[in-house]
Design goal:
Layout lengths: L6 E4 L3 H8 L2 E6 L5 H12 L3 E9 L3 E4 L2 E4 L3 E8 L6 H4 L2
Antiparallel strand pairs: 1-2, 2-6, 3-6, 4-5
């Protein structure tokens, strides 16, 4: 798997902004990727040193649209903890 296809997009919510102050960054990742692949992708793309990675499979939620019931898509997210003092410039607006 190519490292540029492992990370799909950053997750930007109020909770992730609080985590970012602690040096943790949240990404939506490819469901087939593993922790070492995710950490290597972050290291290569952003030139930082990730220390740990937590992976969570987000389950689909039931939704109703125009009388039809269905589910949202399931996805995988990764919480990356960086070395102390390091930041990712894209999140910081640089």
């Amino acid at each position: 798997m190519q490292y540029d296809s492992v990370l799909i997009e950053p997750v930007l919510t109020e909770k992730t902004n609080i985590l970012r102050e602690e040096g943790k960054y949240v990404f939506k990742v490819d469901p087939r990727s593993s922790k070492p692949q995710i950490m290597e992708a972050v290291r290569r793309m952003f030139k930082v040193h990730p220390q740990s990675c937590a992976v969570i499979n987000v389950t689909p939620k039931p939704k109703r649209t125009r009388g039809r019931s269905g589910y949202t898509a399931s996805w995988k997210k990764a919480i990356i903890k960086l070395a102390k003092g390091e930041t990712i410039g894209i999140f910081e607006g640089v």
